[in-house]
Amino acid sequence: MDGSGNSAVTGAAPHGAALHAAAVPGALFTDTALPLVAIPDGWFSDEAFPFDEFADDGFRADGFLEDGAPYDDGLDTAYPESFPVDPFPEALFYDAVFAGGAPSVADAPRLSLDTRLAAAEVILTADLTADGPGLIDQTQALEKFKCWATGQQARLAVTFEVRHREEQAERGTQADSSAVSAEDLGKKRPKEQNLGVAEQIALARGESPHRGGRLLGMGKALVTEMPHALAALDTGQLNEERAMHFVKETACLTVEDRAAVDEELAADTGTFNGVGTRGVIAAVKAASTRRDSRSVTQRASHAASERSVSLRPAPDCMTYLTALLPAHQGVAVYAALTRHADTLHAAGDPRSLGQIKADTLVEWTTGTPGGITGVEISLVMTDRTLVQGDSEPARLTGYGVVPAEWARTFVTGGQTEGDEALKTWVRRLYTAPETGDLVAMDSRRRLFPPPLRRFIQIRDNTCRTPYCDAPIRHHDHIIPWHNNGPTSLANGAGLCEACNHTKELPGWKAKPRPGPRHTTEITTPTGHTYHSTAPPLPGTRARETLQSERLGPAP
What we know:
Elements: H1 3-12, E1 54-55, E2 58-59, H2 75-78, E3 98-99, E4 102-103, H3 113-124, H4 132-171, H5 182-188, H6 197-205, H7 209-225, H8 227-234, H9 240-249, H10 255-264, H11 277-291, H12 293-303, E5 308-314, E6 318-324, H13 327-346, H14 353-366, E7 379-380, H15 383-387, E8 394-396, E9 400-402, H16 404-412, H17 450-460, E10 474-477, E11 492-495, H18 497-502, E12 509-513, E13 519-523, E14 529-533, H19 540-551
Antiparallel strand pairs: 1-2, 3-4, 5-6, 7-8, 8-9, 10-11, 12-13, 13-14
Helix pairs in contact: 1-3, 4-7, 4-8, 5-7, 6-7, 7-8, 7-9, 9-11, 10-11, 11-12, 13-14
C-alpha cells in the first residue's frame, strides 16, 4: 500500500488520542500484504487527490479553495468522468480546524469511532483474488494487526481503570480508593477492590467477568511494568495468549525483578523467534527463577491452596471433570486408578483401560457403580419427547442440550448397567403458550422460596450476566428488594456469586424488559446497556414455528 493508506490511518487517530498510528508496525500495511482492492486504480493519484497535503489531523489549506475544492483550472483532469463508490466515509475528511495553513492538533475535532472503524474496515479488507503467497501475506499482516489491537486494548483498559478510580474518588464512593496514575497503578500494586472495571471491560469485549479480570490484570502489567513485552505485542512477536502467560509467570516477582525479566527477554533479542506457547512459558519461567528463585518456590507452595475440581461440557453428552491438585496427589490418584484398571483388565474385564479408570473414579467418588443414585439431576424435556417419541431435544441442567433419545434412555434407567435401581420423579412445569416462558406464582417473602428458586434455576440454566457461563450460585432480585422489587419469577435471576455482587456496585442498574422470553437489561456506570434473554426451553422453537404457521405471513 502506498502512503495514502497510512495517511488514512493516521488521520483517523490524531496524536494525543487513545490510538496512535505510530504504534502500528511499519510493515503491517505493505502493498503485498493488504492491497486496497476496494479502491480503483487512480483514485489516490496526485492529480485526483493531493495526498502530499494530507496531514495527521486533516488537510493543509495549501492548494485548496475556501469551499474545499482543489485549485485546478482543468477540472476534467482533476476528476474522472464518473466517481466510483467512495470507500471512505465523507466525514473522514472534513471539519478539521486550520490555522495559518497548518492544522491545529489540539483543537481538531475527533472523528467518531464508527468513522474510524469504517475506514479501517476498508483498509483491512482481504483481497481474495490474490495468489497463494499473497493470501499468506495478508493472513500474516492481519495476525500482526490483531496483536497490535490487543496492545491498544490493554492501554484502553488501564486508562479506563485510572479514570474510573478518579471518578469514584471524586464522588467519595470508595473511601480508601484514591485516584492514582497509570504508572503508580502498576508500582503500588494495591489490593484489588471490586470497582466493576473488569466486569465492564468483559461486557465490552464479549467475555466472561473472570476473563475480563485476567485481561485487565494483563493490561496493567504490560502497560506499567513490562514495556518490552508490550512492544512485542504491538509488533506481532507475541499474541494475546502468550503475553498473558508472560504476565502470569512473572506475577510472583517484584516490580523491579519483573522489569528485569522483561528486559532480558526483550523481543529484539530474538527470544521469541519461532517459539511456541510452551517455549515462551519455559523461557519466562527460567528467567524468573534465575532472578528470584525463592519467590518462584513460594508461589509453587501457595498454588496448593488453589486446588479445586471443575466441570465443563464436552461434545456428545460427555463432560470434562477436572481436578487441580498438588503434583504428588494427582500422581497418586492416577496411579491408583491405573493399578485397579490393570488388575481388572488382566482378570478378563472387557472394558478398555480408560473406561475402567473412568468408571472406577465415579464409583469411588459417589459410592455407587452408576454414580447417581440419591442425587437429583434435573432433565427438562417436553411431554411429547418423553411419552410420544418426539425428536425435540431435552436440556440437562448444568450441562446443556442433549438428544431426545438419550434423554428418554436416561429417564428409563437404561444408560448403564449399574442404574437398575434408579428412581425417576417427574415434575410438571407450565409455560406460556405464546413464548414458552416458565409461569409460576409470586411470593411475598424477601427470600426466594425453594420452588421459585428451582424454577429460576431451570429457566436460566447458567449465570444470566451476558457472556458469563458460570454456574448459578445466587437467586436474587433484579430490582432490589430495598427498592420495592417484588419476589417473583419475573423479577428474579440466577447469577454467579461474583456477578451478583457486581450488580450492587454504584452505577450499576438492572431491570426486567419485555422480550420473547424472560429478558433483563443491564446498565453499566458508563451508560452502556446490555440485554440478557433466558435460553429457550425444550419445545420453544417448535411452539414458535406452529404459532407462525397459524398466524400466517406478516402483512
